[in-house]
Amino acid sequence: MTASRVTLLGAVDEVTGSGTLIDTGDRRILVDLGLVQGSPEAAQRNATLPDIDLRWLDAVALTHVHVDHCGRLPMLMRSGWAGSLYCSEPTADLLPMVLKGSARLQRIKHQEWSDHRNRGIAVKGDAPPPVLYTAGEVDALLDRVIPVPMQTSVDLGAGVRLRVQRAGHILGAASVQVLTRDASVVCSGDLGRCGMPPTPDPTPCPTADLVVMESTYGDRERHAIDDVSGALAHLLAKVRLRGGPLVIPTFAIGRTQQLLHVLGSLSRAGALDMNVYLDSAMAARATQSHAHWPSELHADSAVDLHDPLHFESLFMLMSRRESKRLQDIAGPAVIMAGNGFGEGGPILRHLARWLPDPTATILLTGHCLDGTLVGHLAGDPPFAFIDGIKVLVQAHIDLLDAFSGHADAAGLASWLLPGAQNATVLLNHGEADARAALAQRLQGLGITVRRPELGQAVEVIRS
């Protein structure tokens, strides 16, 4: 039998564009196929799929619904691929909303770029953001989805099984294990933090011969999670003194729900004392979806299993008209809006309105990707460009990365050690410094670590 091989097809020395090929000799499985995000130049790379014959993929596995992991999957439909897509049950529930939203956003951003260029407004890049797939191709892909219950496996034939287990991070996020007669390969996906409701703790790495492991925060350790509620309460006290709103760029699935869990706890304790506006229809629907999967929530998150993240002062905005009304809001309030990197969505409207206002506070949570508006704001700049217009930055910029859905370096090592002490570890999904730092940490624990280049195949050796 031919030895299994693993090839990184994306997210090498960067944190977007994930894709990994596992070739067992009898079965070829693609794990994730995500969007490259950041600069316009990076975004143009999305139009080019990995240099493999996608038609002979036997299966695709998806770790979770963030677009840097799933955002190019509909492109498979024009390649002649005819296999099945396996993912956890909550992921299958959320995927239609995410991919249809991605297709719609691609069309909008493409048209906006062209409109701005024609009107003489400054644009990013030399070409419009590409439109990668149609709504019809999204529907065709969704017809191939096979949901897999957590902690269970499916038979792919030829003695190969595919198993999913909880990764934390967001609702439905999974690590993927591929088991052959001779080897075990695990793809971590994005790993969450322990004790960070509403998502459950990640299940430790199973016994493996080779592990493809994320390294997003491989070069840092964060404050204890016990400090999160107190840190946010302290910031809210400053917001009340400043007199303006707290504006938070957030992701529809994951970061939003972490924040709502803590804000809800503060509200019930009488420590919030202001309204919270969630300005994202997708985030609102994703938040409501958490009630459908009580078994996939952290034990500390279910105050009300029928609506686990609701609290009295929370208002979910479902229309552009409702969003625009926040432009005239007076006094302290929390405004949460997508997109988390500031690359589109209603957050741009709120940042344009409140960045010049010294009474306002902008809170950046989690990873601030270089080349994005949020990455720019993390440096507390004197001005920013929004839709080609120069905007003064006089609002207070605060950073609180405790809300990130990614495990830090200690958490990554803790996840790995139980089942993979003797495995070879391939690090990906991390910028070069983070990847190198985590490699050094793991090597210090006696683990064999490799950092292959993009497209470099690594043979799986039974440990």
Would you mind describing this structure in some detail?
Strands 6-5-4-3-2-1-22 form a seven-stranded mixed sheet. A seven-stranded mixed sheet has the order 7-8-9-10-11-20-21, covered by helices on one side. β13, α7 (281-289) and β14 form a beta-alpha-beta unit. It starts with a strand and ends with a strand. With 463 residues, it is α/β, with parallel strands linked by helices. The protein is built from twelve helices and 22 strands. The chain folds into two domains: 5-220 and 405-459, Ribonuclease Z/Hydroxyacylglutathione hydrolase-like (Metallo-beta-lactamase, Chain A); 227-403, Rossmann fold (3-Layer(aba) Sandwich), CATH 3.40.50.
In the CATH scheme, the class of the largest domain would be: Alpha Beta
Going by CATH, the architecture of the largest domain would be: 4-Layer Sandwich
Q: Quick check: average pLDDT? A: 91
Number of contiguous helices: 12
Radius of gyration: 22 Å
Largest sheet: 7 strands, mixed
In short:
The protein has 463 residues and is of the alpha/beta class. The chain has twelve helices and 22 strands.
Question: Helix and strand layout, with pairings?
Answer:
Blueprint: E1 5-8, E2 20-23, E3 28-31, H1 40-44, E4 59-61, H2 67-70, E5 84-88, H3 89-118, H4 135-142, E6 145-148, E7 152-157, E8 160-166, E9 174-179, E10 184-187, E11 210-214, H5 227-242, E12 246-249, H6 255-268, E13 276-279, H7 281-289, E14 314-317, H8 320-325, E15 334-337, H9 347-354, E16 361-364, H10 373-377, E17 383-386, E18 389-392, E19 396-399, H11 409-420, E20 424-428, H12 432-444, E21 448-450, E22 457-459
Parallel strand pairs: 3-4, 4-5, 5-6, 10-11, 11-20, 12-15, 12-16, 13-14, 13-15, 16-19, 20-21
Antiparallel strand pairs: 1-2, 1-22, 2-3, 7-8, 8-9, 9-10, 17-18
Helix pairs in contact: 3-4, 5-6
